[in-house]
Amino acid sequence: MSESEDVESGGDKIKEGSRRHEGNRNDDSPTGDNRDVSPNDDNLNDVSPNDDSPNRPGSRHRALRDSKDFLESPIDLCINSIDQSEMIPLQWENYQSNPLFLKMTNTTNTVVLNGLYPTRFVPTLNGGPLPSPYKFVQLHFHWGERDDLGSEHQVEGEAFPLEAHVVLYKSDYGDYEIAKSMEDGIIILVYMFQIQQNSRILEFTKHLPKLKDPYSQIPLDTVSLESFLPPLIADYILYFGYMASSCKHGVFWLISRTTLAVTEAEMEDFRKISGSAGASIGHNFREIKPTLDRAIFMVNAEKDMKRVLHVLLQGKSQTAKSKGRRESKRGSRRASRKASKRSSKVAKRSSKVAKRSSKVAKRSSKVAKK
Ligand SMILES: [Zn+2]
């Protein structure tokens, strides 16, 4: 299956004057929200929070997917744009099952992990907002040239160095390619990574140096999703966004609040992966698109919703601080190297001056003797 639809070069600029959803969503009064209440014809299009019936007048309930607007992904997740929601937990089946075959490929847009499972043992997700089961297809990554960019989604304007997309298709459609053309055919689970030492993806990233060349691929030891990815069950952000307004390829995005670890060495290996022209891919994340008035939900938050995004950012700012400390140490080392170079230059120059003046002195003493 092609990855090109998913990894798009971010050509679209955020429209100027686009209405951002800030401030006004702090309004907790039910009558303060006069958005349309859409009829419930499909679970995925409508979220029915337990404590907020769509039939209640002035409810905050809104359609997840607005078919009138082709709202795109990815987006910046701002606390003011997110509503809290309670749903039945997501349920995994075969999350611990080992594929018959597992391979990793450099598609020249990204690095993809594909597994071939026995039909009855494909990892499958159900529950939560899902009307029927979704089956695992593949997992791929998005990254950038530096640690302060790389992720497709952002949190309060901050990007992460790496973002993993776990792609699943609606089992009812029978096939990923068919599901892709359907509005509710694809869901993507999102995991953000922060620079930390205890990486659980080393099992794969240790092979990245072998995938530098375009279209190269390698078979891997078969491992279950469970061995390196915490199952997404609760505590996630849910929204709908098209891949691009041109392809009309709709995706329900479920973003884990739990971040995962990636080391700086692993990030360096991602950055050496070559694109089709043979040079490094550089970055493979798309530009942030306007949030506008779309519905975004924090589902089954394990912690206070208001703190949710701040917890995400807390870890990040700690990483940034320790990086800042390293940078400042590196900076001071660089400064002292520069200073010593400068003083040795000064010393050389003054010794030249001394030599020149001694020559002048000799010459003038010769003149005096004459
Ligand atoms: Zn992706």
Description of the molecule:
This is Carbonic anhydrase. The protein has 2 domains: 24-302, Roll (Carbonic Anhydrase II); 312-370. It has helices at 176-180, 202-205, 264-271, 305-369; strands at residues 76-77, 83-85, 90-93, 101-106, 111-116, 124-127, 134-143, 154-155, 162-170, 186-195, 217-220, 236-242, 250-256, 260-262, 297-299. The strands form 2 sheets. Strands 2, 3, 4, 5, 6, 7, 9, 10, 11, 12, 13, 14 and 15 form a 13-stranded mixed β-sheet that branches. A two-stranded parallel sheet has the order 1-8. The protein has 4 helices and 15 strands. Strand 6 and strand 7 form a beta hairpin. 22% of the residues lie in helices and 22% in strands. It starts with 75 loop residues before the first strand and ends with a helix. Mean pLDDT is 76; it is low at 1-42 and 48-61. The chain is of the alpha+beta class and 370 residues long. The radius of gyration is 27 Å and the shape is globular. The structure holds zinc ion. Zinc ion is lined by residues 6-7, 140, 142, 165.
